[in-house]
Each structure stands twice: as structure tokens, then as C-alpha cells.
Here is the input.
Amino acid sequence: MFGKVVVISGCSSGIGLATAVTCLKRGARVFAGLRVPARQAAAVKAAATAQSVSDDTVANNLNFIQLDVASDDSVRDAVESVTGQTDNTIDYLINNAGEGLNGTIETIPLERAKQHFDINVWGAYRMVQQVAPVMRRQGTGGHILNISSASAYRSLPGFEIYGAGKFALDGLMQGYAGIAALDNVSVTNVQPGPIATEFVTRLRTERTSSDSQTTAPEEVEDESDATLLRGLRNLAQFNEDRLAQATLTGYDVADVVADLIEQHAESGKVPLSVPVGDPAKQVQE
Here is the structure.
């Protein structure tokens, strides 16, 4: 991976942060996307130090770009910033930026679901629209890796909006892979099972905030509505508790991503989809 230009979205925490550090450790020139670099870059540098990455490597090969994948302008400006520093080269794009959403169709407002898709699906769409032409024109091809989920195979009750986004992302990229291959650009969807990251904390925070703004089951007159609300809140709690027991870490996923990059660099051949962790593999059996 030595000297390869790797662009990663969503590097402030979790899989994105771990992937930035892991690629850096393996010799890549990393461009880590952050929505607020001035506030978030320190955490990435601290993680690199904790993983025994030298100060020189951090100084020379870790770069930060302002990147909000939900903004057309931000994505365009970020990619132009990278190509301006690399002589129009991007070897690897890792579409990691995303969020979880715990809730069902009857309780999640449509606008919130649209916002979720704008990050988890259209964010990757925007990145590919800007980066793929760079890979095509540089003549050496490239590799696009999308951090998907086992939910792309099986959508769970209470996570169906999140699952639908991962189904959409994988379907979008599976189809596009045939087009990208014409110019020696590979596509891989990386599909982890439950991950032990800040993901669960964020889910709990949003659900708690949402619950505080909605009517409590005991205050609903229609018993069927009250039963639904009680069931959904219990299901949300169950899902969060289950995810909180995850043992797979962001660094486990990052190692898989880095291995795929090195495999691509050596042979140019990589799989279209890769499940990560036993739960993800069991879903596909």
C-alpha cells in the first residue's frame, strides 16, 4: 500500500477512524474526511499514536479534508483538494460515512428517513460521481470500497429504514461495478455484522430524544396504538442491547479493508461483496 492515495469519508470515529489509522500504518497516503477538521482531527492523530504510528508518518502521510457527504459542494471541493495535492491521483476510495437509525415506518417522519438516505446512500453516490472520473482518467484504475452492512442481506424489524439504505447502497454499487470495470476500477461492498463502536450510543441518544417528544403509550386512547408504541420501544431497547454486546471492532473491519486494498494492488482482483464477522456470514448462509 506504500504511497497509494486513499480517500476515506467519515473518519471522526468508529470504522472510518480505524481505517484511516490502519491504512496509514500500512504505508498509504491517507486523506481523512471530517465534517469539522479543526475539532475532529486531534482524535484521529491520537488514535494513530495509540496504534504506534510514528510522528513522522502522521506528519507526512495523514491529511485532513473538510467533507460532508450530504453536500454536493463539500464533496466536490474535497475531491478537488485531494487531486490538487496528488497530481490528480486517487487510488482508493472508502465510502464509510453513514449513520444508524433505530425506528420503524410508523414512527420515523419521512423527512428524517430522507435525511438518512441522503447520508447513507446518496453520500456514497456523490463521492463516486466525483472520484470515479479521476480514477478513470489517471489510467491505472482504482478501487472503490463501500462500508455496507449485513443488513444489506437481512433487514431487521425496527431497523428497516437503515436496512433499506444498505440494500440500496449494495444494489447501486453491484450494478455500477460492471460499468466501473470497463476502466479498470473495482468495486467491493464490505458487509460487517454488529460493531462495538459509538454507533449504539448514538442510536440510544436519538431514540431517547425522539421518545421524549412523542406521546407515551399510557397516554394513548386507542389500545392498538398504545400496544404498538410499547412494542416498538421494547424492540428498540432490545436491538440496542443486542448491538451493545458486539465484539467485532472498527479495527477488525479496517484490517479487512486494508487487506482488500493490498489484494487489489497485487492482483487487481477483488470480490464484489465481503461479509465481516460470523454474524454477517451466517446471515448469508
In short: The chain has one domain: 5-195+249-280. The CA atoms of residues 23 and 258 lie 6 Å apart. Residues 223-244 form the longest helix (22 residues). The beta strands are 5-8, 29-34, 62-66, 92-95, 142-147, 185-192, 273-276.
